[in-house]
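>> received
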Amino acid sequence: MQKQTNFIKTQVRLPPEIHQDVTNFAEENELSMNSAFIELLKTALVKKESRSSNFSEVKVINLKNGIKRLVFGKLVNVLDLDYSQDLSTLKKDIQLSLNALAESSFRHRLSFWTKEVYVHQGGHHIDVVDNGKGSLGWLVVEDHITDEFTENFHKKNNEK
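>> returned
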């Protein structure tokens, strides 16, 4: 154990619900509040480091209209969603899932704590972003036009 004379003393302001979560963690693990904060911060930093070095999960979905949907990000296999539905409906399901995830545990609440998480929908994509700062890399859905889609599109137009 390190001598506390080598430690840096600091003060942190916390929302009451996070303070209660840390208190509960400390009691459940028979730790002081200080040790609980250190343990939680170490765990979060190790997880962040390990996540940033891993590649995102990727799924390719062949939609009925010939479009290929590429789905990737850290939450692809965390959120059990129907990625074949239209983008507007999928956006609503992603938002609902993120809201539930944000409230599910102390660790998940920390992920959302300093971010303004927003599900952005463009013409042919969805991205979970930190509003005003860019993609979080959590979940991206992109629709890609294929040759099959183009051929079907031209056939329909020629039939008119």
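>> The radius of gyration is 22 Å.
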